[in-house]
Amino acid sequence: MKNAEVLKVLRDNDNARHGLMEFEDFAEIMSQRILAREPMDDLRRAFKLFDDDNTGKISLRNLRRVAKEIGDRLEDDELQAMIEEFDVDQDGEISEQEFYAIMQDDA
Description:
The model has no long low-confidence stretch (mean pLDDT about 90). It contains 6 helices and 2 strands, in the order H-H-H-E-H-H-E-H. Helix content is about 60%, strand content about 5%. The chain is mainly alpha-helical.
């Protein structure tokens, strides 16, 4: 949500006009927003976090960078094994479709 959206939600639900809203109202609004989201949009955004070089694939280099960013100290052979496990077309990288299958547990 952008700041303007947050402020509008707050204004629309601030019944006492104190710049606050009830937690129950907040939880209901956020639940509705989460349920209305398109899951594929979330998967596309997640894929792009890995594919920082915009190749349309997740390479060993991409996976190594993400592992390092999240503090995982995995060796290259471990990362390569992860790729090989889900690399259906055996090109040595994870395509968007292969990534979606992993994330949707279709792999």
